[in-house]
Write a structure and sequence with these properties.
By secondary structure, the chain is an alpha/beta fold. Helices cover 36% and strands 13% of the residues. Helix 8 links the parallel strand 8 and strand 9. Bound molecules: phosphoenolpyruvate and manganese (II) ion (MN). The site of phosphoenolpyruvate has 9 residues, from loops.
């Protein structure tokens, strides 16, 4: 239909075949899912296809424009939330505490970087998990691995893949986002209201003073703006909070991908001048005038979340996930780790963003504190050579997972901070920009990561170890991470 090639740098020929929301099905796939009951899957699929979008092209483009600002150093990106979001987290308290935490962290980061912060929650859809093994041990018994609530349940008797969960995922996602939208519209993020910062846990007096000074400074700035009437546009009353999840379960993503009219205010950020403008459909000259007209007015949007990312385990250039991701209008993330070759990196960028649009792609780096120094500079240089302008985001969580002597999966606050600090320094040394941070966190007082001002030790982890996948920073650790990043930006 729209075949022809642009002789793209990739050897995998993505551009020579037509893309459709289902074209991923003809590619090899990692983390495959085998449903026993095909009829039940078909039923879920057709139900999902009839349901309305959860997010709209207007919102998706608003985020894309904001991410273009991040790529150019004009804004900072904060992304955070659970590793595995459970359907059970779709409740008032869990959602409230996460909104509050992301808001507080963003205020601290605004203070530190003196620029706007773009907020993306890993929430309202983060229900699918890649797993390294198909089985795991639970209460001394081997069971199929928990793959996230969208596929199976955590309880040992719920480990069979259940196609009905596809539809349940939609409704939990929609209910979560509905409450987020309602809370924001009702003034939960109204900066005229005092926020409870709760710094009592910080035992170290020097740190306590430092953090208190930052909070005081934020309070004074807000007070000043109110006093001088700087809030004429009502900007202090509300904020944007976008949603994201790993685009892992393509069955679900496909069903929520819709051909929709582009918003009028799309304002595609221009590619750098050296980049020739080519068709997004063919990679070369436009062929069919009616297709050209459609491409200008419509595009395929993943309407399940504003932002989706491809995980470290599913980003092979010639596989199904990248095939799916190359066709959607949403801003996307790609996890980049120790096993990402510079050839793959360049090829991936050309496949998913042939027009080199600024802010379209976020590279989420996750090497580990011991590897970031060697690998990040090489990746920064490789990307620079391609001419792509990306958002560089540091995920200091996934390269720093360790096991305690009693076999509990955890992460040390110091290691997380170390990778993040290294990333900040390396970007600055390489003349690049660290645009943002990607954290696994929860607004609750869990004990899953060690360290931080509460001084959690390996022995303390049993107290409230509640994650169903990776260990998350608790509210205090997450806020402290924001204080430390902000502090280093201010000096
Ligand atoms: C995640 O973000 O939860 C995840 C699985 O990360 P990665 O793909 O980087 O391993
Ligand atoms: Mn994780």
């Amino acid at each position: 239909m729209v075949g022809t090639t642009n002789g793209a740098a990739n050897g995998h020929d993505h551009n020579s075949s037509a893309w459709s929301p289902s074209s991923w099905r003809s590619r090899p796939i990692k983390q495959p899912v085998t449903y026993e009951d095909e009829a039940a899957v078909a039923k879920s699929r057709s139900k999902l296809q009839r349901l309305p979008p959860i997010v709209t092209p207007y919102e998706i483009w608003k985020l894309r424009r904001s991410l273009a600002d991040v790529a150019e150093g004009k804004a900072f990106l904060l992304q955070g939330g659970d590793c595995a979001e459970l359907f059970d987290y779709c409740n008032e308290a869990a959602i409230d505490s996460k909104i509050k935490l992301l808001l507080q962290m963003s205020l601290v980061l605004i203070w530190g970087g003196n620029k706007p912060v773009v907020r993306i929650a890993r929430m309202a859809g983060q229900y699918a998990k890649p797993r390294s093994s198909p089985v795991e041990m639970l209460d001394g018994k081997q069971v199929p691995s928990f793959r996230g609530d969208i596929l199976n349940g955590y309880e040992p008797d719920a480990r069979d893949i259940d196609p009905d969960r596809l539809v349940q995922a939609y409704f939990h996602s929609a209910a979560t986002l509905n409450y987020v939208r309602a809370q924001i519209a009702s003034g939960v993020a109204d900066l005229h209201n005092p926020l409870d910062w709760n710094l009592g846990h910080v035992g170290d007096e020097e740190l306590q003073t430092k953090y208190t000074r930052i909070v005081d400074s934020i309070r004074e700035s807000l007070q000043f703006m109110k006093t001088v009437g700087a809030d004429t546009a009502g900007q202090l009353q509300t904020v944007d909070l976008f949603t994201s999840h790993e685009g892992l379960l393509l069955e679900y993503e496909e069903a929520l991908t819709r051909k929709l009219r582009h918003p009028v205010n799309r304002n595609v950020p221009s590619p750098p001048p050296s980049v020739p403008k080519v068709s997004p459909l063919t990679g070369g000259a436009f062929i069919d005038p009616s297709l050209k007209a459609q491409a200008e007015t419509h595009g395929y949007y993943n309407t399940s979340a504003h932002f989706l990312w491809v995980g470290d385990r599913t980003r092979q250039p010639d596989h199904a996930h990248i095939e799916y991701f190359r066709g959607i209008e949403n801003p996307i993330g790609i996890k980049v780790g120790p096993t990402t070759s510079i050839e793959d990196l360049a090829e991936l960028l050309d496949i998913v963003n042939p027009r080199k649009e600024v802010g379209k792609v976020t590279l989420i780096t996750r090497y580990g504190e011991g590897k970031v120094n060697d690998l990040l500079p090489v990746h920064i240089e490789a990307v620079r050579k391609t001419g792509h302008v990306v958002v560089w985001q540091c995920d200091p969580m996934h390269g720093n997972t360790r096991s305690t002597t009693s076999g509990i999966k955890t992460r040390s606050f110091a290691s997380i901070l170390s990778e993040l600090s290294s990333a900040l320094r390396i970007h600055s040394e390489c003349g690049s920009i660290l645009g943002g941070v990607h954290l696994e966190l929860t607004g609750d007082a869990v004990t899953e990561c060690t360290g931080g001002s509460q001084g959690l030790q390996d022995e303390d982890l049993g107290e409230r170890y509640e994650t169903f996948c990776d260990p998350r920073l608790n509210e205090k650790q997450a806020l402290e991470m924001a204080f430390l990043v902000a502090g280093s930006q201010r000096v």
